[in-house]
Amino acid sequence: MLEAREWRSPKRAGFWLPIVLLAAFLQFGREAFAESSGVPSAASLRSSYERLAPKLRNNAFNRPLYLESKERSNELEGDIYALVTQPFPVVNGTLNDPSGKPTNWCEVLLLHLNVKYCRSGQDAKGSTLTLNLGRKMEQPMEDTHPVEFRYRVLASEKDYFATSLSAPHGPLSTRDYRIILEAIPADNNQTFIHLTYAYGFGMSGKMAMKGYLSTMGRGKIGFTQVGTQDGQPEYITGVRAVVERNAMRYYVAIDSYLNAVSARREERFEKALKSCIDTLEQYATQLQEVNRASYLQMKRNEYKRMQEKN
Questions:
Q1: Is the pLDDT of residue 195 over 80?
Q2: How confident is the model at residue 219 (pLDDT cuts 50, 70, 90)?
Q3: Residue 195 in contact with residue 181, Cβ under 8 Å?
Q4: Half-sphere exposure of 180 (CA within 13 A, CB side)
Q5: Higher per-residue confidence, 178 vs 302
Q6: CA-wise closest residue to 86 among 255, 226, 211, 231
Q7: 97 Cβ partners below 8 Å, 6+ apart?
Q8: Which helix (H) or strand (E) holds 151?
Q9: How far apart are CA 84 and CA 191, in angstroms?
Q10: What topology does CATH give the domain 13-217+230-309?
Q11: Is the pLDDT of residue 282 over 60?
Q12: Which of 30, 117, 140, 279 is the most exposed place for a label (fewest CB within 10 A)?
């Protein structure tokens, strides 16, 4: 763990790493979305659903989920395809606001360990989300780093929606952060979702990542199996492991919040919290970095702070 003074010092890679690894939100426009994920439409997502059906039924996650990651020369991307148990109208009503407002997204994002605070707003260009990002522990606001993201509805149809959160620039020459969520109705009154997480980087970003992987990130693994040793699976390491873990954390936050939508509004976040830590514990080797009690107390306090300030 870095001390607070190290977190505040931009000369230390530890200051930026939670932001570099967390800030996942740039919308390139439809052209870039098409490049990374095919044409953004119900038809293309339905094709992915049909193509991935066998992998959704049989995989190491023990749930209908498929994950893939890509490392390009100047970009990392993680994609998760999954079935969620809520019907499409519920998912659409919870995570897509055709008016262009990011309803519920602050509560979803606050489930992530590194998100310390969230505030939605409006400016001349539309909707924004201001996130304060920090370490995997409780912090005062002045020790966190505020970043403003743009919320956009890319498509909103009867049987399909796509939304994005975006930030064009980040620290240490990182850029083009994006998270894009799209969904269609699926069999058995479920919903098929596709979550894209990606960001670009320059030389400074590469150096920061190299430093992280040789220190705090050493030994951490992702989810893609790359071989076996003594009969046990070996999982991917390095930068693709980083993007896989973070893509999974966002998926877990989304899925956990959807699991809680049937609760009364005042009880929803607490139910989502418990669902989230339950899932993190299922994949403890990759995802659990604080114990259950610490996670629940930290997030309850951060939620209270968010409610008081908003």
A1: yes
A2: confident
A3: yes
A4: 30
A5: 302
A6: 255
A7: 103, 153
A8: strand 145-157
A9: 5
A10: Alpha-D-Glucose-1,6-Bisphosphate; Chain A, domain 4 (3.30.530)
A11: yes
A12: 140
Residue pair 82/255 in contact by the 8 Å Cβ criterion = yes
Q: Label residue 80 left, alpha or beta by phi (over 0 means left) and psi (-120 to 50 means alpha).
A: beta
Taking CA atoms, 266 is separated from 270, 274, 298, 307, in Å, by 8, 15, 18, 11
Taking CA atoms, 88 is separated from 43, 94, 158, 190, 258, in Å, by: 16, 10, 10, 7, 11
List Cβ neighbours of 19 (8 Å cut-off, separation of 6 or more): 133, 145, 147, 170, 171
What is the helix (H) or strand (E) element at residue 178, kind and residue range? strand 175-186
Q: Is 294 helix (H, G, I), strand (E, B) or coil?
A: helix
Cβ density class 114-147: b for 16+ within 10 Å, e for less = bbbbbebeeeeeebbbebbbbbeeebeeeebbeb
* CB-based contact 181:254 (threshold 8 Å): yes
Taking the complete model, does pTM exceed 0.70, yes or no?
A: yes
Q: What is the DSSP letter of 258?
A: H
Place of tokens 């109208």: 89
- The per-residue pLDDT for range 70-99, each reduced to its tens digit, is 988 788 899 999 999 999 999 999 999 888
> Looking at the DSSP assignment, which residues form a beta bridge with residue 121?
128
Q: How far apart are CA 86 and CA 69, in angstroms?
A: 26
